[in-house]
Design brief:
With about 525 residues, the chain is α/β, with parallel strands linked by helices. It has a domain of about 160 residues. It is about 30% helix and about 15% strand. The chain has a 20-stranded mixed β-sheet that branches. Strand 3, helix 4 and strand 4 form a beta-alpha-beta unit. Helix 16 packs parallel to helix 17. The chain is flat.
């Protein structure tokens, strides 16, 4: 069980930064040294269940007494966010059990303490992840050599790095580090002309995220993937409206390089029908498929359904893919039986209710469509705007439709995250069912079927549409019936007194109200 520690002396400064990582571990995020190292804090966190500290110091240096506490309890500090130059008696030099080191400080400090950063890397034998916003920092020979000499490092993140032209030797050294990692997040604009040679037999890279694929020679970097036999996850951050070089890219797909990929993401790509078919056709066991804001032909997904390529997919992201219509969303939810995480633009009540209502209640074009269970019941995360649609002259049935949709949603008993605010309803792709009288967003109200959702006892995060607001009755219902809820996002009642009262209601349960 996750537990939050009550520390009376600094409850307002500390507990608001409390966050959870897993069921056995609490992580206390502290912003000020003098708050972090109060004796009462250390006394509580040194006792089971063990709490680890994520240090993100922004205040003054610790005192002599606090330095003594660091020496005594420093083994509990697992994450450190370095934002200043490491001084002679800096607390970070006393830590030897770090797992994550994040480096983001002003550019004026660059190059001033590379040797001390190397010292920190070498003395923390359990360090597994390094993150930095400055590529030139990690292009230091001493730091890179320390990473090579540290067998525990498995993740390197250089996501928002500024461009500094590296030398050939240092670039090769970076790739030498990456080849022995499990996870690498790199800005490919940093290496526009460098095509390093990797040792295929020793390469163990499994997860690769590439940014800046509109560089001078992206294909040279794609060919690099052929030297990564253990690769299981690719995430290409492709700029919008930029397509892959189709011929060369297709040739790489034909080579069978990525037969064993478990995850493929190309968010923002402009994929041709041929390219998408080859990508998804070669990824036959993809557990995760991310195509957010991607342009492709609808026929491509239809062919995937027919081939059964998505039968093992557990996570799929199709937000802002306006080629994906509501019937396609329904087809995905019914055919991908192992799906746990799904996001898309919009889903019509016609698809949700077709197996519980007579088809004549809707449009006549639905009468020949087969009946399926409306969704896979193992979903844990659902992000989609649900639109209540009704035939002309049947607006009086809106209340009935809302109740029935809520009843169908109640079958998702394993949901931990529900987001009903995917996109504005004016651009929801429901071309197949356009009625004269328009549509209405699903109403989240007591008396409109909300009571059916008592079954969602695992729900931790709820985001609702911006076309409505939650009032006191709905908030109190959530507080009573969803014991695990931790975050609620969306517009609330405009009354400031009501907002303040609502936050007080939820504060004792550590529930965040955003909106």
């Amino acid at each position: 069980m996750q537990q939050a520690f009550q520390i009376p002396e600094i409850v307002h400064d500390i507990t608001k930064f409390l966050r959870f990582r897993d069921r056995k571990t609490c992580i206390l995020v502290c912003r000020q040294w003098h708050d972090t190292f109060l004796p009462s804090v250390w006394e509580r966190i040194s006792k089971p269940p063990r709490t680890y500290i994520d240090i993100d110091p922004e205040g003054e240096k610790p005192t002599k007494d606090q330095m003594y506490s660091i020496r005594k309890y420093g083994h509990l500090i697992r994450e450190y966010h370095l934002q200043t130059v490491i001084m002679d008696e800096d607390p970070i030099l006393l830590l030897n059990n770090l797992v994550v080191l994040q480096i983001t400080y002003p550019r004026d400090y660059l190059g001033l303490n590379n040797e001390r950063i190397s010292q920190v890397i070498r003395q923390n034998h359990s360090l597994t992840s390094i993150k930095s916003d400055y590529i030139c920092l990690l292009l230091s020979n001493s730091i890179l050599q320390a990473m090579i000499d540290s067998p525990s490092i498995r993740s390197l993140t250089m996501e928002r790095c500024h461009y500094f032209p590296p030398s050939m030797d240092l670039s090769s050294l970076v790739w030498r580090v990456c080849s022995r990692l499990h996870t690498a997040v790199l800005n490919m604009d940093l290496y526009p002309k460098v095509v390093p040679t990797l040792d295929r037999e020793k390469n163990c890279l499994r997860n690769l995220t590439l940014y800046g694929m509109d560089g001078q020679d992206p294909l040279s970097q794609l060919r690099l993937l052929q030297e990564c036999p253990e690769l299981r996850r690719i995430n290409w951050k492709v700029p919008e409206r930029r397509g892959y070089p189709t011929k060369e890219f297709s040739a790489l797909l034909d080579s069978g390089t990525w037969q064993d990929l478990e995850s493929f993401e190309a968010n923002g790509a402009n994929l041709s029908r041929e390219t998408l078919n080859k990508v998804l056709g070669s990824v036959k066991c993809a557990v995760h498929l991310g195509l957010r804001n991607t342009v492709f032909a609808p026929e491509s997904l239809n062919r995937l359904f027919q081939s059964g390529a998505l039968r093992f997919t557990q996570s799929m992201e199709l937000k802002k893919c306006f080629a994906v219509t509501s019937p396609m969303v329904q087809q995905i939810l019914t055919s991908c039986t192992l799906l746990e995480v799904f996001s898309a633009n919009g889903l019509s009540s016609i698809e949700i209710l077709e197996d519980v209502m007579d088809s004549s209640s809707f449009a006549t074009s639905t009468s020949q469509r087969p009946k399926y269970p409306w969704v896979c019941l193992g979903l844990r995360t659902l992000e989609v705007r649900i639109v209540i649609q009704y035939p002309p002259g049947r607006r009086r049935d809106l209340y009935r439709y809302n109740m029935l949709v809520m009843e169908q949603l109640s079958k998702l008993k394993f949901l931990t995250q529900l987001d009903l605010s995917a996109v504005d309803r004016k651009v929801v792709p429901l071309q197949k069912y356009v009625f004269d009288e328009g549509d209405d967003t699903l109403q989240f109200r007591c008396g409109l079927g909300l009571e059916y959702l008592r079954t969602m006892i695992r729900l931790r995060k709820f985001t609702f549409t911006d076309h409505q607001y939650l009032a006191e009755e709905e908030l109190m219902w959530i507080r009573r019936n969803w014991p695990n809820i931790r975050r609620i996002e969306g517009p609330f009642h405009n009354d400031p007194d009501f907002k303040q009262q609502a936050r007080e209601w939820f504060y004792e349960r550590a529930i965040e109200l955003i909106g």
